What we know:
Elements: E1 2-8, E2 13-16, E3 29-33, E4 66-69, H1 79-93, E5 96-98, E6 100-101, H2 104-108, E7 111-115, E8 118-126, E9 139-140, H3 146-154, E10 160-166, H4 177-188, E11 193-197, E12 205-208, E13 211-214, E14 219-222, H5 224-227, E15 235-242, E16 249-259, E17 265-270, H6 273-287, H7 293-315, H8 327-334
Parallel strand pairs: 1-3, 1-14, 2-17, 3-4, 4-5, 8-10, 10-11, 11-13
Antiparallel strand pairs: 1-15, 6-9, 7-8, 12-13, 15-16, 16-17
Amino acid sequence: xxxxxxxxxxxxxxxxxxxxxxxxxxxxxxxxxxxxxxxxxxxxxxxxxxxxxxxxxxxxxxxxxxxxxxxxxxxxxxxxxxxxxxxxxxxxxxxxxxxxxxxxxxxxxxxxxxxxxxxxxxxxxxxxxxxxxxxxxxxxxxxxxxxxxxxxxxxxxxxxxxxxxxxxxxxxxxxxxxxxxxxxxxxxxxxxxxxxxxxxxxxxxxxxxxxxxxxxxxxxxxxxxxxxxxxxxxxxxxxxxxxxxxxxxxxxxxxxxxxxxxxxxxxxxxxxxxxxxxxxxxxxxxxxxxxxxxxxxxxxxxxxxxxxxxxxxxxxxxxxxxxxxxxxxxxxxxx
Length: 335
């Protein structure tokens, strides 16, 4: 099985050129579907929300080899019709998914897949974000205590449990200490793998207990013309997992998004030798703070401040708060 990042190519066509050693056709790929699948000329109306709305016009070339995690902040960008279109197309093309549904129960339902003879249970969830399902409303599965029950139930019938979760701060190379504790708790509860996404840039990974945690995979397939303004958004982390080995064997991979500007075609392939050196250096820096708690806490404080300036202040119309000179003045402004 290979874990991948975010699938959101928009109107672009995608060709995946994995090396034969990755055994395409013999295993499964898990990715996050960032937005619904709609026709290019659809007439659906997007829901009002902070930030952009996303959709893509195609699934991968081998949809039956993919499992998509649907619990994220863009799957419901076009309301229930967008969700219905996506689920219908997936059913027609044999692509499996979990993490969204017509009500809260169906959104939370895990799936069980066969990966080279190994039964694997997959749970999909996200932090409290746009589009979550409440009771009888359609939407995506928000994280909660139910995830631990789902892990426990799956362990009665499968050998491996994967928790695929959409959470964290966008554009940050590091998760928060809270996210680290949360993801470790999934392993403590019996999961073997945590498949993280949402940052849109690769984040670090660590072996923990009897499992492995990937905090953020980055962008697996996106429209390069729309993502070229931020660094590290046009390559991603992937992981090849061998569930037949005990203990689990795995290896990290890095995948590049290549394209000719304006061509409408993007190619996904493994990094070349020169790119591998740079990617390894980046990932080493992502991983280092996990063993240095004081450095990790300091980095997170800096990430939080920058995220507030870049996202929170703008979306909440609080740009003026950045100019106040004292904590008391800031509190009064917020009030």
